[in-house]
Automatic annotation (TrEMBL):
Domain DUF4401: 31-360
InterPro entries, sorted: DUF4401, GDYXXLXY
Protein name: GDYXXLXY domain-containing protein
Biological source species: Roseateles flavus
A Pfam family annotated for this UniProt entry: GDYXXLXY
Length: 538
């Protein structure tokens, strides 16, 4: 009888005589926890080795051929350990850090001694040699990632940091084009027996190649929707300055055209693999994606990778490309070159056209809802709830208008803070010159008293000598009471943001005071921002 633990295909192979009767599944020599601990020991053993090399060579590593010699020796040792069949587990795990040290040493020497474009070219040749020499699939994938980044460095421009990213866009699409041609060649070779070995060798390299390009596309797209808000307004501004979409600043047409071409190729590849997609109903959605690819230059590259990955059944790669495509679509929110109204019109028009097209091309079927007429409490609950909502909303509006009309004008100084961050429209994040306040967690209960401030007002209504009151402490005579509110995990006066009309941000940079209307019990409302002369802005 066959062993129950054997898979069905092995049982059938033994019954048909393709495998000997005693054939069984290979048993791992060591369980994975032991292998993990062995790898950890190898990495820890490398630390004193690096210290020994640093003490032995000293500053000789920075000059001359020492870095080349040491790097090549480390690479040869790593390759030899990985190719050996009789080496122990510990030495096999030690091979990876040796390879990384060798690559780092040789890469440092090449970047030090050679021109900016010759160094990555030789780095590509070194990666190709390691791909041929190393038998491990995952190592070839990592070398593919490194090869993609080195290819980008070959055509880099001199003004990337200054915002001239047009050469980088061209290098991305050139690298992507090389990947697409290699994928086509790989597919053709895989269908022939003589080319199967070459296809198996290059498959992990090309997968790593495009996986290295996907984070570059996300970086070029800039921050996506709601990401900046989650990181904080100050950091959001810094991220947008570093990662903002630079396409509209220079070289717009070239990358946009390449994006549209890449999107067209990616969308055209899907019907070739799946004939069910050859429907005229999908024409308008495809055209909308092409239009968005013109506005978002990274979207076309993502669609090309997504299409080819789906055609070749590379699910992990397809999921990565889809994630970056969604990131790119979300980055449309932060393109400051387009006004918010224009972006809203583009999205509304796209959604309207797509919805109308789907409605026109959908199959018409009779719809029978069979809704029963409401009876009993259901007849009056809906209008009552509507009246209650209207009453609550209008009551809040009346309360704010009463506070504005009867409240005392109070001006509170603003502390230095980031002047702009985009989350919902344009707004200024404000911070007030207040004394140290307790954490919100210490006063979080709905029945606990909120912190209160006591402020003296000068002749102009500017709050001076602001002091935090203790619990149950009454404010001194002639002072103004200010009630604090919890906002975004900290205490502040009413709100930490002031929304403004798009395009007014330069004028609001002169803001020095927050203008409030305050009631005697400390309830306040932020009504505007003022400059040093207490003039309302904008």
């Amino acid at each position: 009888m066959s062993t129950p633990s054997l898979p069905d295909w092995m049982v059938q192979a033994r019954q048909q005589g393709l495998l000997p009767p005693e054939a069984s599944l290979p048993v791992a020599e060591r369980p994975w926890p032991v292998q993990l601990l062995t790898a950890l020991g190898a990495w820890l053993a490398l630390i004193p080795f690096v210290i020994f090399l640093a003490l032995l060579l000293g500053r000789a590593w920075e000059h001359g051929v020492t870095a080349y010699v040491v790097g090549l020796l480390l690479l040869a040792a790593g390759v030899g350990l990985l190719r050996s069949e009789s080496v122990g587990r510990f030495l096999e795990q030690l091979a990876l850090p040796l390879l990384m040290l060798g690559l780092g040493s040789v890469g440092y020497a090449l970047g030090r001694d050679l021109p900016s474009r010759l160094a990555p070219a030789l780095g590509l040749l070194l990666c190709a040699a390691l791909v041929l020499a190393l038998p491990r699939h995952w190592l070839r994938l990592m070398l593919g990632v490194a090869g993609a980044w080195l290819c980008l460095l070959l055509v880099r421009g001199p003004h990337w940091i200054g915002g001239d990213l047009a050469p980088l866009w061209w290098s991305v699409y050139l690298t992507l084009g090389l990947w697409g041609l290699a994928q086509a060649w790989l597919h053709a070779q895989g269908l022939r027996a003589p080319g199967a070995a070459a296809a198996a060798l290059l498959e992990p390299v090309l997968r790593g190649w495009v996986l290295g390009l996907l984070p570059v596309l996300a970086w070029l797209s800039g921050p996506t929707f709601m990401m900046s808000g989650g990181l904080g307004s100050g950091l959001a501004r810094e991220l947008h300055a570093a990662f903002g979409a630079h396409l509209w600043a220079s070289g717009r047409m070239g990358p946009a055209a390449m994006s549209v071409l890449a999107a067209a190729l990616g969308l055209a590849a899907l019907p070739q693999a799946w004939p069910v997609l050859r429907q005229w109903r999908l024409l308008v959605p495809a055209l909308l994606l092409l239009g968005l690819s013109f506005v978002l230059p990274a979207l076309g590259a993502c669609l090309l990778v997504l299409g080819l990955a789906l055609v070749r059944s590379r699910r992990v790669l397809a999921l990565g490309a889809a994630a970056v495509a969604l990131w790119t679509l979300g980055s449309f929110y932060y393109q400051l070159a387009l006004p918010l109204t224009d972006k809203a019109l583009i999205l509304v028009a796209s959604g309207t056209v797509l919805g109308a097209w789907l409605w026109l091309t959908a199959e018409r079927r009779p719809l029978r809802l069979g809704l029963a007429k409401p009876e009993g409490a259901a007849r009056w609950s809906i209008p009552v709830c509507g009246l209650l909502c209207l009453g609550v909303v209008n009551g809040l509006i009346w309360q704010k208008e009463r506070l504005i009309a009867q409240g005392r004008p109070v001006f509170v100084g603003l502390a230095p803070v980031d002047p702009r961050s985009l989350i919902q429209g344009d707004y200024m994040r404000v911070n007030y010159a207040l004394p140290p306040l307790p954490p919100v967690a210490e006063i979080a209960g709905p029945w606990q008293e909120r912190p209160r401030l006591e402020a003296r007002l000068d002749a102009r209504g500017v709050a001076t000598e602001v002091r935090l009151l203790q619990a149950q402490e009454a404010p001194a005579a002639g002072t103004q009471l200010l009630m604090l509110s919890p906002v975004n995990g900290h205490w502040t006066l009413v709100s930490d943001a002031w929304y403004f009309q798009e395009g007014q941000e330069p004028r609001l940079r002169a803001a020095a005071f927050g203008e409030f209307r305050v009631m005697p019990d400390g309830r306040a409302l932020l009504v505007g921002l003022a400059d040093r002369d207490l003039r309302r802005l904008p």
